[in-house]
Amino acid sequence: MRFVLLLLSLVLAATQATSHAYAQWDIEESHTTASLRGIHNVGGGVAWASGTDGTVLRTEDGGYLWQTCTIPPGAEKLDFRGVQAFDENTAIVMSSGPGDQSRLYKTTDGCQTWKLLFTNPDKEGFWDALQFIDRQEGFVLGDPVSIKGVQALNAFAFFQTSNGGETWNALHQERRSQHIYPAQTDDAVFAASNSSLLVSFTYPTFVTGGPHPKLIAARPMFWRVLPNISAQDLIKGISRSLPLAVGKAAGGFSIGETHGKFVIVGGDYTKPDSINGTAVFEGADLDFFQAITPPHGYRSSVNYDSTQKLWVTVGPNGTDISTDDGKNWRPLTPASTDPVGADKNWNALSLPFVVGPHGRIGRLRTIDQKSTAINKP
């Protein structure tokens, strides 16, 4: 989202909570001062990160050493908000910006060389998220654009590839597409962490911001049986209002799923210490409720750690965890041996990694939930 480009160098003191977990991030050396918003943990020690000024990083040893990649041609001033990696050699990065400043580049040789795959064809468009189901099928989500041949209709931009990114179809411009999602005035998607879009159900699901925050999901009959779905919903997908903060800088920023339920975080990024409307959890049949104990500020990214069976969410003023699928959150605070502010100033997650401004990269340590102590990996 365009407003996100104005963000985000705010680092304010975290509010105190009654219950803390003394867990934290091991800070890693990135060898860059770029603002990082893209992060993708492939597994097996391989992860890729991306950010401003055409910056792409990768590690093959779990973050002990981060390699600075060759800048893709013509991308020296681009802001790579998203990265989707497949192995130690293959990755696609997405830049976010107005019109043709939104682009996709791919490497297959460990980021020594890059190929420009696709440039945004919508002059008024702005890309927000890139997600792949597998090596072949992927999606790009963008802010609303006008629909050709339909007067006064705007829809969220949606592109799909079925051949690893070599070609892309503009689904939002196809009259019979199941992926035309009409947008209301001031609707938008945030490009804060490349996690406003989720494709784990094969069909995409995303969250929006603005005056009407909502979850939008495609063709739910293919991934979940819901008793209260209308015939129109079955054809066009569904939309659900989210009880999150509202405004031009507010709404849903990140979505995750586990145990068949969604957890969504956000808030107002101009009010990083406000706890109002910062997280919701799913009850039954896509009914959403505000967190009982919310994160202690605006949050830009959320991720589930299946090994530790907990949720982690991050933002400018701190980190929070939940062990009950988003109903209650408690802050992580630095241990005595951690650097001051190790819990703060983060943008995006792909656990165990977290990235932030000024080249910040961290790796989550194992949490001993019985004693709230931390064990080194």
UniProtKB/TrEMBL annotation:
<dbReference type="InterPro" id="IPR015943">
    <property type="entry name" value="WD40/YVTN_repeat-like_dom_sf"/>
</dbReference>
<protein>
    <recommendedName>
        <fullName>Photosynthesis system II assembly factor Ycf48/Hcf136-like domain-containing protein</fullName>
    </recommendedName>
</protein>
<feature type="signal peptide">
    <location>
        <begin position="1"/>
        <end position="23"/>
    </location>
</feature>
<keyword id="KW-0732">Signal</keyword>
